[in-house]
Amino acid sequence: MSLTARLTGPWRAVPILGLTQIIGWGSTFYAIAVLKTDIAAETGWSQVMAVAGISISFAAGGLIAPLVGRTIAARGGRPVMAAGSVLTGVSVAALYFVENEFAWLALWSVIGFSQAMNLYDAAFATLAEIFGSRARAAITALTLIAGFSSTVFWPLTYFLNETFGWRETYLIYGALNLLLCAPLHAFTLPVSGAGHEVGPSDSVETASAMKLLPPNGLPFVLLATAFAINTFFMSAFAVHLVGMLEQIGMAAGAAVAAGALVGPSQVCGRLAEFVFARRRHPIEVAIFTMLLMPLAFLLLALGGAAVAIAFAVGYGVSQGLLTIVRGTVPLALFGSSGFAIVLGRLAAPVLVAQAIAPVAFGYALQSWGPRAVLLASFALGLCSFAAIGWLAWRLRTGEQ
After folding, report:
1. What is the pLDDT of residues 34-76, one digit of tens each?
2. What predicted TM-score, i.e. pTM, was given to this entire model?
């Protein structure tokens, strides 16, 4: 397919959603990492309170995710994602006016509702509505583009904060969501079904050898459990990775340098999946992903600072692949019919895990120490590997 056809046909959904995902994630999730110190200094709040907004947003998103999935299934992704961007724009811009903790947390609750409407799960569901069973390649390509959100928004946020201040930064980010993302979602995304006959048929032969499972009962519980555990660690390490590396004996600069390898490793993992594993069944990629993660924890627990770089790379690859399999595995297991509803139901426990992870993991680090936490993480990670392995076995044997 020519580049022109990709940019004007149904495949235009990928760069459009890639751009809006970069802005959506960057203006909410990634911006707070840069702004939290200045927010705390100006308002007199603790940095814990500043970061608590993220936990509140994930919890709120988990509450509304099933409803969002049903709405996308009924009305398509365009109106839902457009409305989500409008809500994100208004609520992020309103952070400019916040003067107390209650208003801060209330606005982050609204931001959480909007994130459920326009970030990854909604985007994956929209791509499935557009491409049907052929959505795997589009989902992978989207995660490759969106993986650069922190790369773009950390330095951008630093520049805007230094130039204007944190309140003005949020005002600018609100305008980006409202004036750029919302129109892109509303007017430029292809309609549902536009790409059902367009694009590569990734893994068709592999997928056809396996029967679809019902999107309920034990198969659904196993997949939700595996995703929630892995996402718990993604959220926890986004906040505590550098501090934990310092606790095991690394200098601050070295810990930051090692932590900085996670982002590029995520992108490399996604690129490797796109190039080398696109004709493998997504459940096989998921098995590798959920084995690599606990092995990385065990490596760091036993090797300490000496193996921090290897840990960061292994962990980063695992988390990069996790973003892909969250979209591709449900599509392969349960099919494209009702996919948005399935994703909405899966998103609820995942977002709740994201919400509680920073606080729970931080408390465990403080109470147990890094080595014990890493060993406990290894054991919990093996549970997610066992869940996905059991699910793969059921799929192979045709057991419902």
Report:
1. 888 899 999 999 888 888 888 899 889 988 999 999 999 888 8
2. 0.83
Q: Which pLDDT value is given to residue 52?
A: 86
Nearest to 317 by CA among 382, 270, 381: 270
Q: Write out the two tokens for 340.
A: 């948005």
CA distance 37 to 32: 9
- pLDDT band (50, 70, 90) for residue 85: very high
How many Cβ atoms are within 10 Å of 69's Cβ, its own excluded? 26
Measured distance CA(345)–CA(209) in Å, rounded: 26
Q: Which CATH class is domain 3-187?
A: mainly alpha
Q: What is the maximum span of the chain, computed from C-alpha positions, in angstroms? A: 60
Residue identified by tokens 């208004």 is: 90
31, pLDDT greater than 70 = yes
CATH topology of domain 204-397: Growth Hormone; Chain: A; (1.20.1250)
The ranges assigned to domains in the chain are 3-187, 204-397
Q: 330: which 2 tokens?
A: 């449900």
pLDDT band at 207 (very low <50, low <70, confident <90, very high): very low
Q: What tokens were used for 363?
A: 């408390």
Q: In this predicted structure, what is the pLDDT of residue 3? A: 55
Element (H, E) at 194: none
281: DSSP letter: -
